[in-house]
Amino acid sequence: MATFVAKLPVNMAFLPGPSILISPTRVEFSDRDPNGFTAERDDGARLEVGGRDFSYFFGQPRPMGTVTALKYFAPEGLTFNLTDADVSLRDLIETDVAGAMPLLFSDDDKLKGSSLNDVLIGYDGSPQGDDALWFG
Question: How far apart are CA 32 and CA 74, in angstroms?
């Protein structure tokens, strides 16, 4: 069950964080170890990835390991924090942004919006779901 907390306004139909991994153009990877890494784009957007079993080739993450947490920073500051996820890094980077959402949110997830205008979307692969939504 993933827990998503927005700190700045978000639209989950176009969630910006996963795109840094899906299209790593102009991205520098740092803080690399088996439990996570940081991906920073040259426009100042940054994604901190937590998980397990990551490895690297020429400074970039190999498509292996499991993502359990994402923390996305826009140039304005912390935008969202995602914890308790369980998705293959390979699956995440081999999809598009729309395809990443059901991978990250496909269980009984908890979603909390910021105090501003958010679009929160829960995914479970069926028309019904047990996602819990909180609004700021």
Answer: 20
Nearest CA among 15, 51, 17 for reference residue 31: 51
Summarised one tens digit per residue, pLDDT across range 32-74 is 999 999 999 999 999 999 999 999 999 999 999 999 999 999 9
Encoded tokens for 79: 């935008």
Residues β-bridged to residue 69: 50
Q: Would you give the end-to-end CA distance of the chain in angstroms?
A: 21
> Do 32 and 40 touch, CB atoms closer than 8 A?
no
Beta carbons within 8 Å of 126's beta carbon, 6+ residues apart: none
What are the φ and ψ backbone dihedral angles of 110, each rounded to 5 degrees?
A: -115, 125
pTM of the model: 0.88
What does the DSSP assignment read for 7-47?
A: SS--BGGG-SHHHHHHS-TTEEEEEEETTEEEEEETTS-EE
The contacts of residue 12 (CB under 8 Å, 6+ apart) are 101, 105, 111, 118, 119, 120, 121
Two tokens, residue 131: 């996602």
